[in-house]
Amino acid sequence: MNTMTESAHKEIKMIEKAAREFSKKVLAPEREENDAFPFGPFFNTALEKAYGLDFFHLNLPENLGGMGQSIRALCRVMDQICREDSSLGGIIFTNTLSQSILLETGSESRLQSLAEKATGVFDFIVAFPSLTNPHDLTDLPKAQVKNDVFTLSGHLDYLVLGGMAKQAIIPACIDGNKEYSLFLVNLDSPDVVRSEPIMSHGLHACPAVDVTFSFAEGFLLGEAGKGDGYFTKASETMQLAASAMLLGVMKGSWDEAMSYCGSRVQGGRKLKDWSTMQMKLADMVIQVHVADMLVERACQAVENQEKDWQNLVKAAAFHIQSAATQLVTEGIQALGGVGYMKDFGQEKRFRDAGQIQTMLGHTHIKKLRFIKQFLN
Amino acid sequence: MISRSELNVLMDREPKFDDIMISFRAIAKQPKGINKELKQVIAIARKFNEEVIRPGSLALDRKMHETPDHLAWDYVREANKRGFYTMFIPKMFGGEGYSLTAVAYFLEELSSSCGAVANIVGVHYLGIVMMFSSWNLKICNRICADVIKGQKNGEPCLLSLAMTEPDAGTDSQNVEFMDTGSLACHAQKVKGGYKVTGNKIFISMGHMSTWHIVHAYTDLKRGSDNTVMLAVKKGTQGFSFGKKEKKMGQKACPASELIFKDCVIPDENVCFSKEDMAKLKRRVKDTNAQVFAYIWAASRTSVGAFGVGTARAAFEEALDYATKTMIDGQRLVDHEWCQSLLGDMYKNVLLSRLAYTEAGYANGLHGIWMVMNVKPMYLMNRYLPKALISWFMKPFLNLGLTTTVFRKICFDMQSDDAVNRVDGWGSFAKVVGTDAGIQNARLAMEIMGHAGVRQDRRVEKILRDSKLFQIYEGTNEINRLNLFKRLVAKALPQTEVFSETNP
Q1: Residue B224 and residue B482: Cα distance in Å, rounded?
Q2: Number of separate domains in chain B
Q3: Which fold has domain A134-225?
Q4: Are residues B259 and B128 in the same domain?
Q5: CATH number of residue B229's parent domain
Q6: B190 with B124, same domain?
Q7: Considering only CB atoms, which chain B residues are within 8 Å of A129?
Q8: Measured on CA atoms in the order B229, B234, B237, B243, is the torsion positive or negative?
Q9: Nearest to B477 among A131, A333, A337 (CB)
Q10: Which residue range(s) make up the domain with B222?
């Protein structure tokens, strides 16, 4: 049973509508140009507009300046945005993950301070290595403490939003501690060196950098050595947001395939009138519907705090990751040669899906951890 | 235990022995020297990989993102300097005379380092194959001489294959679809030649090629039996280059637009016309289909090899990553689940290589280089000095009679079974190899996690490059249907493929 009230539903529908219009009117027309980053301009204007529409405040509690919405609202926004440009979805995702981690670590005051001081999106966002589970990294930066002040030294690869944010949550191991801790670091510090934006497979305009720390000051978030616990808690719901991103990509790919096959003629017929293509399109729309149902069901499970909601979210994520990568491959194939070209949206969706599936850690490692609870 | 007549009857049942046991049949006839040649060409390719491709391909890919209009002339010149554009041209045409059987292995090797650079080299042979599919030996001789000259003087002379049009992708590549009204590149017969108007798109290496082997149509509504194959040289009045496509991958190999506006091609550059085809035993449309079969059988086998190259590249990168990365205190390669995935990837490489090997044998028995694989021809091509062969053969190659004889041999004496076999195996190799490329690239990305999405780790580029192989030379969907048509439906007389009657 869904316990969400009617007014909450209406509010989410309005948010979803705003995201849909933003996606179509702001993101879609500039998609190719925005995807040229880092070899083209960054989409500052679109980003500031998204910030102005509160897409970065969806899950933040109202008392901290946010909209206090559930994961369902975030998923709906991600779905709409990622139909046209997942890069913005990646930025919102990473920032929302950072916010969730700050909340899990009991750092509400820091969040409040960020929200109050921010004059725009670049002041507000917090970077994080959102493509990894820090537990799986063997070479995390080291943290030393002296006079209650922590300093970080070492290297961290692929800090998402690290090139545009002013602060980041960095996993680091305190001397003598096997488990990592989480620190808030000022990226503008002279003790932090950021690389040029990394050229990546997808989500080109969701930039990441490699970072080197030389005794850079970091503020411990939560308790020392509990970083894995905080990340795990935050990622349990954020995995659903990643699934919603993939759902949006799938829908965008399906829409474009249907549109093209409905107009392109080869062999004297529209492509959609050839039964091989019909089979392909059928497979695509089936997977879109299945993914839609999975995200919806998982959102319901989270909202109702059902007993097994974490497993439902994970299972949905595994299925959708696999389905999405297959679908976007067929999405290009349905368009033939033009599907491979940047003038059309399919090739970007192909790359973005490949990148999104790496979010929050290695798929196979996640699967092994997932099954261990059943084996034990 | 079994009589000869019983044997023949049983071997002629589907699947026919001759259709499936290609390598067994080919190896018995294959000249021994080909083994040694294979090793040589693979070694030549590996050396190029080590010295040129590996050190520079990622930077080249990055540069292509930064400057999409960049043309990788340094790679073309280096390949030219090393003789790659003349390597597989028979000695009688002035080339180095390496066996065409070895092309696919050479291209797999290059593709294992970079799919784009492999295309920079390989696409030239697409144009060569298309030109030779006309068996117009006078033109072949003249144009090959240009290529040889280009290798000697350091100014590369490449060939491209130009079929695809804005409204005719599949339609321009399959005789069955040509009459559905989407063709637009018109060739009007004029005094002394043809006047061509129309555009070709997605032409690999278009901007970097000197000669373009072009299909145009004297009747746009009935292209299937009104195709004319023309050799168009860069700089011809009325011929210009249009846009370069913005591709997801294989960026260093441009996909070009060719624009023809009242471009007059003289008769001496007409490779194959309707009138030429009418002199052969089959209907013009069926001879046209044979031309396509010759082209596709060879080119699709090579594309299958490209795919195997990328499948192998993905496997090698994943293996390297797995041996150097620790997860839960152990190397990734020591985790059983990872070993299983890597095993699967290696299986894909082995299987898909077997596929193009088999298709290569089919080409040697029935396809465009069957003549060169006949032992006397092979031995002459391989062991006699180039100058001697060239001196001896040149006068014959320029004779119209020689072209007539070769066309009789290669068209009239090629049985329908042989056409089916070679074309079917080409499609098979293409589908298997290119699907393997995508499968392995995806698996490698999964194994490498966040490292896999970085351009500087190579694997994401392999995935981008691999995807195009599933599309060009006929999409894999078309190739599956062609495989069915050529190797299965031939035994089902009432079954039509590529037909408007197909639901």
Answers
A1: 17
A2: 2
A3: Butyryl-CoA Dehydrogenase, subunit A; domain 2 (2.40.110)
A4: no
A5: 2.40.110.10
A6: no
A7: 450
A8: positive
A9: A333
A10: 160-273
B199 interface with A at CB cutoff 8 Å: no
Co-location of B320 and B258 in the same domain: no
The model's pTM: 0.96
Other Cβ atoms less than 10 A from the Cβ of A168: the count is 27
Instruction: Say whether B385 sits in a helix, a strand or coil.
Output: coil
Same domain, residue pair B49 and B33: yes
Interaxial angle between packed helices B103-111 and B33-48, expressed in degrees from 0 to 180 and rounded to the nearest 10: 20
Q: CB–CB of B245 and A325 under 8 A?
A: no
Task: For residues B55 and B187, state if they share a domain.
Answer: no
- C-alpha–C-alpha distance, residues B380 and B392, integer Å: 11
Identify any residues that bridge with A306 across adjacent strands, giving them in sequence order.
none
Q: Does any domain span residue B191? A: yes
ipTM score for this prediction: 0.96
**B499 assigned to some structural domain:** no
DSSP string, B290-307: HHHHHHHHHHHHHHHHHH
Both B269 and B279 in a single domain?
no
Shared-domain flag, residues B269 and B364: no
* A337 chain-B contacts, CB cut-off 8 A: 164, 169, 201-202, 471-472
Please tell me the distance from the alpha carbon of residue A222 to that of residue A106, in angstroms, as a whole number: 6
Domain boundary among B273, B307, B341: B273
Nearest CA in chain B to A350: B464
Q: Name the domain boundary from B210, B243, B273.
A: B273
Helices (H) and strands (E) in chain A, counts: 12, 9
Put simply, whether B202 touches A (Cβ < 8 Å) is: yes
Angle, CA A233 vertex, CA A230 and CA A237 arms, to 5°: 140
Answer positive or negative: Cα dihedral of A104, A110, A116, A117.
Answer: negative
Domain ranges of chain A: 6-125, 134-225, 228-375
Which CATH entry fits the domain spanning A228-375: 1.25.40.10, 3.30.450.40, 1.20.140.10, 3.20.20.300?
1.20.140.10
CATH for the stretch A6-125: 1.10.540.10
* Domain-located, residue B76: yes
Q: Could you list the pLDDT tens digit for every one of the 376 residues in chain A?
A: 455 688 888 999 999 999 999 999 999 999 999 999 999 999 999 999 999 999 999 999 999 999 999 999 999 999 999 999 999 999 999 999 999 999 999 999 999 999 889 999 999 999 999 999 999 998 999 999 998 899 999 999 999 999 999 999 999 999 878 899 999 999 999 999 999 999 999 999 999 999 999 999 999 999 999 999 999 999 999 999 999 999 999 999 999 999 999 999 999 999 999 999 999 999 999 999 999 999 999 999 999 999 999 999 999 999 999 999 999 999 999 999 999 999 999 999 999 999 999 999 999 999 999 999 899 8
Q: How far is CA B387 from the centre of its chain?
A: 28
Put residue B496 in one of left, alpha, beta given phi > 0 → left and psi -120 to 50 → alpha.
Answer: beta
- In this structure, the strands spanning A269-270 and A265-266 are antiparallel
Q: How far does B20 lie from chain A, in Å, by closest CA?
A: 26
| Residue-wise pLDDT tens digits, B323-359 | 999 998 899 999 999 999 999 999 999 999 999 999 9
Separation in Å, CA of A163 to nearest CA in chain B: 16
Give me the count of residues in chain A. Answer: 376
* C-alpha radius of gyration, chain B, whole number: 23
Is B191 an 8 Å CB contact of chain A? no
Q: Looking at the domain assignment, is residue B300 inside a domain?
A: yes
From CA A186, how far away is CA A169, in angstroms rounded? 9
Residues A89-136: tens digit of each pLDDT: 999 999 999 999 999 999 999 999 998 899 999 999 999 999 999 999
- Residues 65 to 104 of A: which have CB under 8 A from any B CB? none
